[in-house]
Amino acid sequence: MRDKIRELTRDTAIYGISTIVGRFLGFLLVPFYTHFISTAAMGVYGNIYAYVAFLNIIYIYGMDAAFMKYSSLAAPGERERTFSSAYLAVLLSTLLLTFLLFLLRSPFNALMEVPPRYGHLVRYVIFILLFDTLALIPFANLRLERRAGKFAAIKLGNILLNLGLNLLFFVKLRMGIESIFAANLIASAATFLVLLPEILPRLRWRIQGGLLRRMLRFGLPYLPASLASIMIQVIDRPIVLHLTDLDTLGLYQTGHKLGIFMMLVVSMFQYAWQPFFLNNASEKNAREMFARVMTLFVLAAGLLWAVVTLFIDLFAGWEFAAGRSLIARPFLPGLVIVPVILLAYLFNGIYVNLWAGIYIEEKTKYFPLVTGAGALVNVAANLLLIPRLGIMGAGLAVLASYLVMALLLHQVARKFYPVPYEYGKLARILGTIVVTAAGYYWIHFRVGIELWHRFALLAGFIALLLALRVVNRQDLQRVKELLPRTKRVTSNE
Predict the structure, then answer these.
(1) Are 71 and 144 in contact (CB under 8 A)?
(2) From CA 6, how far away is CA 143, in angstroms rounded?
(3) Which of 55, 135, 49 is CA-nearest to residue 100?
(4) Helix (H, G, I), strand (E, B) or coil at 489
(5) How sure is the predictor about 9, in pLDDT bands with cuts at 50, 70 and 90?
(6) What are phi and psi of 448, to 5 degrees?
(7) Is 13 exposed, middle or buried (0-12, 13-18, 19+ CB in 10 A)?
(8) Residue 42 pLDDT > 70, yes or no?
(9) pLDDT for res 214
(10) CB within 8 Å of 417: residues ≥ 6 apart
């Protein structure tokens, strides 16, 4: 078991390189853009990419997940047929959607409320969607074959090319907002070309009808579930704006963005977790292994929560030049929601952990119900809490939605694939987080939090974990054993 979990931690770290760098560079590009485009153009950029997020889900309609499921079950000689059936189906549907969007680009612009002067940007969007979608199945295959190094290298290449082209188009060519879309398109096309050697040798120009129908039955439930998931991530912005004002939304957006640290950890874990549990589902001790992974994840995420919560405002307020902080002073009050957003993403990580039984038992039809419930809770909580608590209400709405999703998915997974989770330890870890959060907010609002308060709360967090026997010497030894080790060379070898 320990060797298997060590493989998971190693793959998580490798996938994390591309995930962290990509998300972090995307975060850093936002202040860069403000020096070259107007606030109106920034709004156009954000609005268009919100639609891109929805269209990405429609274009792939769960086929990447279905491919990983059925390819993991296929005999070595059958995997090329699985790849071909999934890839050809996605290729045909993507070409059809691209053609339709190109024909209907004017109504599409009207739907997105894009001003006429920016109407030409939809052409970039159409082809970005094309190339990004055609890369998804090959990337899923790299994950399934545990070629994490190549996966990360291609992703990093895409990120660095995109970044370099942004600098070139903005600074040298002065292309304005078009720079963002042109750079994205070229990077997406280049990634597709790099993946062609992964695609062509595996491609057989024939779709297995029966196999494709099974994959569609497995994958299509992802479509409404993923759309509901996107709603959870973005619906709070228009509600905050509707119930408050633009300034309040700006504070909320800033605080929400800094929840990226926990989101990155969950994303890293997700990339490695899905192929891990599919490839190890038949192991004799699979359920015990999955339970151990859950405990280790919540413990690691809890420690990250404590560190980021207690020190993020010091980091954000750091002055790199006279009068200039990393996050501009007017936006710093938005950081009050960061602990809540971090905890929301921690529960999202628990939700991802619970995927294992649903995938293994092919009960993906429950995903739309669970995620839909999360979306409804999100909307209702936003409408109820924002008028009373402002941006803190919006943050609590996100937390409520992910908490409900985790609880509901646990009930479904327990029915079809019970796992002996260490409920006592999980409850003690989460209880320690709640106690620390209560202490942090009490000090923050009552007396103002000082540096010594932060270290005292961190020490208290760790001490409470030890006192509650969440962490002991054996657990520390297990964590040490999961770390990559170099083989010692002795004279006997």
Answers:
(1) yes
(2) 16
(3) 55
(4) coil
(5) low
(6) 85, 125
(7) middle
(8) no
(9) 86
(10) 287, 356, 357, 358, 360, 361
- Amino acid identity at 48: I
DSSP 153-219: HHHHHHHHHHHHHHHIIIIIS--TTHHHHHHHHHHHHHHHHHHHHHHGGG--S---HHHHHHHHHHH
Q: What is the DSSP string of 11-69?
A: HHHHHHHHHHHHHHHHHHHHHHHTTTS-HHHHHHHHHHHHHHHHHHHHHHTTHHHHHHH
Q: What is the pLDDT of residue 322?
A: 66
3-state secondary structure of 146: coil
**Range with the lowest mean pLDDT among 257-261, 416-420, 425-429?**
257-261
Which of the four pLDDT bands, split at 50, 70 and 90, describes residue 328? low
Q: Which helix (H) or strand (E) holds 7?
A: helix 2-33
Own/partner pairs, 34-41, CB within 8 angstroms, 24+ separation = 36/170, 36/176, 36/179, 37/176, 37/177, 40/115, 41/118, 41/176, 41/177
Domain ranges for the chain: 1-18+221-484, 36-220
* pLDDT single digits (tens) 94-104: 999 999 999 99
Spacing of C-alpha 81 from chain mean position: 30
Which of these, 85, 484, 65, 90, lies nearest to 278 by C-alpha position?
Answer: 65
- DSSP, collapsed to helix, strand or coil, labels residue 97 as helix
Residue 164 CB partners (closer than 8 Å, separation 6+): none
d(CA 91, CA 242): 40
Q: What phi and psi values does residue 280 have, to the nearest 5 degrees? A: -115, 10
More confident residue, 417 or 111: 417
Q: What is the band of 88 on the pLDDT scale with cuts at 50, 70, 90? A: very high
335 near 255, Cβ under 8 Å?
Answer: yes
Q: Which residue has the higher pLDDT, 328 or 399?
A: 399
Tell me which amino acid residue 484 is: P
Compare 144 and 374 and report the one with higher pLDDT. Answer: 374
186-203 mean pLDDT: 91
pLDDT for residue 204: 82
Highest mean pLDDT among 124-138, 152-166, 319-333, 416-430: 124-138
List own/partner pairs for 435-444 with CB under 8 A and 24 or more apart: 435/464, 436/306, 436/309, 436/460, 436/461, 436/464, 437/309, 437/339, 437/343, 440/309, 440/310, 440/339, 441/339, 444/336
Q: Using CB atoms within 10 A of its CB, is residue 483 exposed (0-12), middle (13-18) or buried (19+)? A: exposed
